[in-house]
Amino acid sequence: MSVRRVVPNIRSEATEESREFYGLLGFEEVMNQGWIVTFASPTVPTAQVSVMTGDMTAPVTPDLSVEVDDVDAAYAEVRASGAEIVHPLQDEEWGVRRFFVRDPNGRVVNVLSHR
């Protein structure tokens, strides 16, 4: 299993202000689902920041997202470790398969693969 990207998720209602601020740093909006907006560097597309009002299908807002090449393998490994699964592995309507796990620092990590 390999990591494709890591994205910090900022819980906020200030999406327009965030768009303007991250634009000052050279980021461009690359995704807007209404409840989550992702900004990326046009020269390094995996350098990203997301701003979320809340998660659409999960009970909590994740602190960061980790995209892996095989989310099923990651899920099996995390479950075997005994880590707390916060949101079960499932396919989402916006084209990802994901689960949430709590890390040793209490942070919620969204682990995902694009379908």
UniProtKB/TrEMBL annotation:
Residues covered by the VOC domain: 2-114
InterPro entries: Glyas_Bleomycin-R_OHBP_Dase, Glyas_Fos-R_dOase_dom, VOC_core
Lineage, opening ranks: Bacteria, Bacillati, Actinomycetota, Actinomycetes, Kitasatosporales
PROSITE patterns with a match to the protein in the record: VOC
Source species of the chain: Streptomyces armeniacus
Name of the protein in question: Glyoxalase
PANTHER family (UniProt xref): BNAUNNG04460D PROTEIN-RELATED, LYASE
